[in-house]
Amino acid sequence: MRVIVVYENQIVMAETLDEGLKSIFETTQSTSKTIIRPLEEEELVIPELP
Fold first, then answer.
1. CA distance 44 to 22
2. What is the pLDDT of residue 27?
């Protein structure tokens, strides 16, 4: 089982909530089992209804 932590423009997948939070807020710690990806801002396009 894994947890996903999202904060501002970062998303982390870790084995525990504690690992996920540490990965987001303590940038010096990194484990090989934690996956960290920055989120890219995309423009949301909402189509007009007829």
1. 30
2. 66
The residue extents of the domains of the chain are 3-38
Helix (H, G, I), strand (E, B) or coil at 37: strand
Give residue 19's region: left, alpha or beta (phi > 0; psi -120 to 50): alpha
Instruction: Give the CB-side neighbour count of residue 14, counting CA atoms within 13 A.
Output: 20
Q: To which H or E segment does residue 48 belong?
A: none
pLDDT digits (tens, 9 = 90+) for 9-19: 888 888 999 99
Tokens of 41: 């801002």
